[in-house]
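> tool_call: predict_assembly(chains=two)
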Amino acid sequence: MNDFSKFWIVSELKRRSVWILGLLVTLGIAGLVFVDLFSQRLSETASRDTRKFLSADYTVSSWEGFNPDLLTKLEELVPRSDTILSQTLIASMQAESGQVSAISLGSYEGAYPFYGDWKTSSDFKISDLGANELFLDESAKSKGFKIGDQIKLGSQLFKLKDFVELEPEAVSLFRAGQFKVWIRYDDLKPTGLSGPGSRVRSRAFLKAPNTDSKLFREKFREVFKDPNLRLRSADQSNAQAQKTVAVLRSYLSFVSLCATLLGIVGLFFMFVSDLQKRLPSYLTLRCLGLDNKGLIQATVIPVLISALIGSTCGYFLGSWAEHQLSIIAAKQLKIDLATPYSYLQSYGLALLTSLLALAPVLFFPIKALLRTPTQALFSSVDSGNNLSRSFDRPAVVTCLVLTFILSLITTQNLQLSAFGFLGVIGGLALLSALLWGFIKLLQKLLSAETLKGFSVFYLIQSFTQKISQTFVWVLSISFSLFFLSLGLLLATSIHGQIDKASNGNAPNVLTLGLTQSDFDEHSENFPEQTEWVPYLQSRLFEVDGSPIEEVNKKQSENIDEEGGGPQLREYFVNIRSSGDLFEGEKLSDGTSLFGATPNSEAGMLHASLESKFAERMELDEVGKTFVLDIAGVKLKAVVSSLRQVQWFQFRPNFFIVLSKQELEGAPLSYTALSTVPPDQIEGLQEKIVRLIPHASPLDLTQTGKQIQGLLDKLLLTIESSSLFLFFAALLVIASVSWAKRGEKTSEFALLKCLGLSRRSLYFQLVGEILLSVGFAWLLTWILVFPAGQIMSQRFLDADLMFPPLNLMAGYFFVLSFACIAIYMLVNQSLTRKSAKELFQEDSL
Amino acid sequence: MRAALRANMLNMLELNNVVKSFFTPSPIEVLRDVSMKVDKGQWVSLMGPSGSGKSTLLSLIAALDTPTSGKVIINQQDIAELSEEERANFRAKQLGFIFQSFRLIPHLNIIENVLLPSRILDQDPSSSRERAKSLLEEVGLKDRMTHTPGQLSGGEQQRVAIARAFLTKPTLLLADEPTGNLDEDNSETVLNMLEKLKTTENCTMVVVSHDPEVAKRADREFVLSRGVLNEVSTSK
């Protein structure tokens, strides 16, 4: 590099526009790194818990069954450090202060290490509990309990020592139970709550990542020989969590891909505009003797330096922001978010993205620059127009291909990248086609002759004739608004479904764990508005003539042994006395719930299956058969109908429904759905638990609120990441405005000369922006509704609900304001410099 | 009689002791005590070196700016007394403009470009259209009405600009280097058109130009040098 190049590069680095480009790279890379690291963190979190996790659910009906040796016996099978034993006694308690609450009582004997030091955020240790002392979950504070309260458990008084906020790690281990109270193991028996007749659920959580599950099951049964003992794999919920995270990660990657594309387009416009402006300078340098190599150095190196610094700053900014968000998210959601697996990889991605993004931004315009003849300096027309724009199409194609490559690097998933890429192309094509149609229609309806008045005429002409500007504006706004609107639409639908399900007439207390004798003895003690839902436990043995093992092999690799994991074997089966459908159900196949089928045989049960379950089990056709084990008896059933279930109804529903008539005399269990005034929910819970200690009455309104809270947070994440795309769109608008500002100033200068006042010019400008934003907004909602409907049906099993009009309109106004603000910022002297712009000399 | 005639031939353009200063970054006086009187129907040429203040003077006459002191009176109207809106309206009704770089709107076709001033004034579309067609015929571009500026040569674009300038029958036409971007033949054509239209439309013209051919055709010639205006000679 010679002296002149060094000198020129240093002087270029003093130019504001080079650093504006660097700043834009910083912001773009920050967003990209943020999304990448957050996606990594989500994936790591979800995959972390997929270590093999078995739970032994041991339910007995007497204290004698409360087996303290369970843990010792389990030690024969797995190392002590990998086992957590929890034993739950379902009981009620009464505080001295008169507050009464039905709470599950838990006694925890855990290993980390054994009997010991189970840490929480308040450094709680089980060994901190003295005799007749208890800890309460912090949520009990809302029920009026205070430290020092005397609380009666059975016949013993306990002192409330402290409240406990569970650490996320600990929470994740207690999958099945909600432990609200902690006492020492030795204090349990004296309370008398654990006498004969008490229901004890003993549960061991076994982390056995390296254990052969099949071998483990065999040994387990050998050791315990107890038919009540069921071994479950926790993989099902893990798989679901992984699926959810995969969907979220895909969405984030897709948004990131779109934003990258828009960012590249924005940078492209900016660079080309800058190059055009400086074309006379570069041509002059050539006149003075600078060769092509020198010219390339002069133009490229300053930009690369700025981009490199921008990428590094962007990386640090993005990773800091992501770290802050993860801290907030972990606290809010009480989830321990994993560490992203590679910060270095993310930095590499940042650098690679900027280099790849800059490649088409630099290559094509500089190629055009090198081809521009120096004689252009002496041309009679403005030499800035001599930079050929024939590279526009190749540049766009290159941008798209690069974005695909970047997506591949980010997601490491060809299918996802291809799908995303095609989605982007398809979306752009559809938007373009719609916009083209609108423009043609406008032109036809509103020809120059029919338009009265200057303002409307000029507005329509500018919109319909300045095609490239219109397209860039409308498409970039539509693109970004699409994801924001989709998030809003889904949020509205979910909230609407939950609100509908929790309205005044919906059941608000769900009682689980009721037996036939509970029903016979206590049903009259339940509120009048109580629906009793009977069910049986069953096991699948055969599906459509194939043994269950063969079905397993096709389904998943994580299925446990012995004919398949619980998710494919053990089901609660609803027993219905009539063929009526529940609210939120509708038939998707079959004429009625238990209608006759062509190939049913005598003695066969008629079954109605949930449609997605049926699809998974390959029983998605009326007439197919399967074999169930109910209370030790193998029964053959035929599919008589398929049901679609809206799971947002917050009522129990079942994959399999059988007719009561066909199962007369079978031992039934029940859930009860009661409706009471909201202020009577707690009282009902207390009453039920006193009458039936082993029952679990749940407040459904609380459940609904919890789900809403979680969904709100999820949707907030989605909307926040969509904002990233929105800012990318604003970048494009800023870049296009920057690129066209010379043209715009000339145009406005002329209009001012012809008699338009400054106020009229501003109205004209605002009108143009509002028209573009308005079209973009309209196009977006045209596409969002069908997309939302598909997603709502596919992922939420819910109908689409329209968002409030004020929210939809709000997007229009916010966008308009943002676009107008950006435009004015870029074109600050739009009307002030008009006179100077027109006349060639005397620039001061 | 003579007094009546003189009364009818009131000054079209009058500059009385006009001073224009700019104060950023440091105070500088661009126009110093400029005075000029131009009769109706006259063609005035304005010359001067770069940086002499020609564009500033043109901006003042075009009512795009107001003097620091002194008066600019066009058709008996003191420009400084008008509000910004009134000045805009004034420009639309009374003035016509021709620029060195033509300044046509690229996304409008030729007839639409020519019709712009009448649309701004909200004049009757059909009569405006007729006039526009007639002017385009005058400048020899009637067959190119639906073409866009990008499809025309420089000379043709300037002729369109001339047609646009005369559409609303301005009383004063301002031209800034009208032949600056044209070759000799086109320059000749443009100047001939200007001369013809000036006569038929009875318009006063102020033309800024370095071209001596322009100065030759002018009725009066002024030179602006370091902010000071001097009349050189009466060309005709």
